[in-house]
Design brief:
The protein is mostly helical. The chain has 26 helices and 6 strands. Strands 3-2-1-4-5-6 form a 6-stranded parallel β-sheet, with helices on both faces. The longest helix is centred in the first third of the chain and has 34 residues, at 173-206. The termini are far apart.
Length: 588
């Protein structure tokens, strides 16, 4: 236990030192993790000599990454991107793999089945690395970024068949065929059980309103499905991927994503550190020109292939080549494929280590080459060739609604009627299930958690409507969002004038008292009922509304009295006496 704690401290210290440094140099966090692993591994300071156990644990990060990828693959998303996914994705993967297979067979007379496995593994790009680069260069939400995402999406879908291919190579005869049938049967059983059991389980957990229990449920689903599929002879990643797809349209999607994301990020970072420790730098020192040359060849091949496809899809030449460079590195799943192949004795250990080293070097080279490309090539481009005005309009909602009760639903109905995209969050699981029957896009989640709001798209939204019942939680949401997203317009529901004043001080743009408007409307009806003309009743209602707003504005000028005002509000009767006296004096 003591040794494990020391190792954990070493991993954390290496990451804390290396990652910020590489981020500052704009080389990316993943390269920082790899460098940290090299530094503490056998070829560096040799602080940790055997990273095997760490690598096995860290592979759970890849499992969770596949789960999160599955969560994003709703049928609607796949259908909307079907042409680019199929055309760009398949052509890139198969075309790149074909070139690599031909080179391997020609250069070293490698057996076709092994050459195909290596070719497919090297054709994959790093989803985590490429998404980070596209986000950093602000093209992920553009038409160009959408093309890149389609390629990555097809690659992620292809990971499962590639891993199955590795397992098929490891099997023999009837035994391998039997494993395929067993695996297929288990997948069908899991799909049926997941369809009818996962959402009821999550609704039951949500009814207890425990964030810790929801975290435990999320991990149980991911790891349980992964182990169940692995028990059938398939990969853990497939189980997690299937679980994600089953929950892609669930009300709990955003909540699950927020719960799993921290574990995924930490374990994926540990995975790259472990990969850095396992890279056989002895091969690099023995044949530096060959290994570096092969890494450069891989980058050049994928850059030209992806760049040409993006160009054919309508992107300007310079943009297309830059996208190709962003996706040119080998991917994290190549490490997984080589690791599986070594354990199954499908591939020679030295060859597998060479492939892993080439992938690691390609990751290390991508960011510096991209910086160089921008300095030399992008500075020469013409302004009219920009492709970045074509945004992916469906990527993020324009409005986030926190709380989808009566107030939130009215706003949601109005937005839907006018074709405006929104995402709603509510903590009542039964309520959500009822509302979703009528086609509303509402998810389970605690909006006081900013990480959940981020998952729902708060940083890209234009308006946040806070429509929850709890006054303190509403205030907490307003304060957190105003601090993190100063650009967003916040509109909030207030129970009373004291609540309104507190929200205004917290930075809300508009706070609306839930009873005030309807009460003034009813008061006008009372005036008309006793014989006051419609015009006079409307004028009196307008004057009273203006007068009451003046009292609010006056109170906001003296924030130092807020504590006293809250105390008066709690006492209730004193506030009422004060307001009636003020009304009588000002309106007479």
């Amino acid at each position: 236990m003591h040794d494990q704690l020391i190792n954990a401290i070493i991993y954390l210290a290496a990451a804390v030192v290396a990652v910020p440094l590489f981020e500052k140099l704009r080389l990316g966090a993943i390269l920082g993790y790899l460098a940290a692993g090299i530094a503490i591994g056998p070829w560096g300071l040799s602080v940790i000599s055997d990273p095997t156990d760490t690598l096995h644990l860290a592979e759970l990060g890849v499992v969770m990454l596949l789960f999160l990828i599955g969560l994003e693959l709703s049928p609607a998303t796949l259908w909307r991107m079907r042409n680019w996914i199929v055309m760009l994705g398949s052509t890139q993967l198969l075309g790149t793999a074909a070139l690599i297979v031909g080179l391997l067979i020609w250069a070293i007379a490698l057996e076709f089945s092994i050459a195909l496995m290596i070719g497919l593994a090297l054709a994959l790009s790093s989803t985590a690395f490429a998404i980070q680069l596209m986000t950093s260069y602000r093209i992920l939400d553009t038409a160009l970024g959408q093309k890149g995402f389609a390629i990555l999406l097809f690659q992620d879908l292809a990971v499962i068949p590639i891993l199955l291919y590795v397992e098929a190579l490891a099997g023999a005869g009837d035994e391998a065929e039997g494993a395929w049938w067993i695996g297929a049967a288990v997948i069908v059983a899991v799909l049926i059980a997941g369809r009818y059991l996962l959402n009821p389980l999550l609704r039951l957990v949500a009814s207890y309103s425990s964030s810790e229990l929801m975290t435990a449920a999320a991990l149980l689903i991911v790891l349980g499905m992964a182990l169940l599929i692995e028990a059938a002879g398939l990969s853990m990643g497939m189980g997690a991927f299937i679980a994600g797809i089953l929950l892609a349209n669930s009300s709990f999607k955003h909540q699950l994503e927020a719960e799993v994301e921290p574990f995924k990020g930490l374990l994926l970072g540990l995975f790259f550190i472990a990969i850095g420790m396992t890279l056989d730098l002895g091969l690099l020192f023995a044949k530096p020109v060959l290994i570096i040359g092969l890494a450069v060849l891989l980058i050049a091949t994928k850059t030209l292939m992806i760049g040409a496809l993006a160009k054919l899809a309508g992107a300007p030449t310079n943009d297309a080549m830059r996208l190709g460079l962003m996706l040119s590195q080998g991917g994290e799943f190549a490490f997984v494929v080589m690791s599986h192949a070594k354990r199954a004795a499908v591939i020679d250990v030295d060859l597998a280590n060479t492939v892993a080293l080439i992938v690691g070097l390609s990751m290390a080279m991508t960011s510096p080459l991209l910086v160089l490309y921008n300095k030399i090539v992008m500075s020469l481009r013409l302004p009219e060739s920009e492709d970045y005005d074509s945004s992916w309009s469906e990527a993020e909602p324009e409005v986030i609604i926190a709380g989808f009760g009566r107030v939130g639903q009215i706003t949601g109905r109005l937005l839907t009627a006018n074709g405006i995209q929104f995402t709603a969050l509510d903590k009542n699981a039964e309520h959500i299930e009822f509302v979703r029957k009528f086609g509303n896009k509402v998810f389970f989640g605690d909006a006081t958690r900013f990480d959940l709001l981020e998952t729902a798209g708060i940083r890209h939204a234009r308006v946040l409507l806070v429509a929850i019942d709890d006054e303190e939680e509403a205030l907490e949401i307003i304060q957190a969002v105003r601090a993190e997203c100063p650009h967003i317009k916040i509109i909030s529901r207030a129970h009373n004038r004291v609540n309104l004043l507190r929200q205004r001080q917290a930075g809300v743009d508009l706070s609306v008292r839930e009873m005030f408007g309807s009460s003034v409307e009813m008061a006008g009806a009372v005036l008309r009922g006793i014989g006051v003309s419609d015009e006079k009743a409307a004028e009196l209602s307008r004057l009273f509304t203006h007068h009451d707003q003046g009292l609010i504005d006056e109170a906001l000028k003296r924030p130092i009295e807020m504590d006293q005002l809250i105390k008066i509000g709690i006492e209730g009767r004193k506030e009422l006496e004060m307001l009636f006296s003020k009304d009588k004096g000002d309106l007479n």
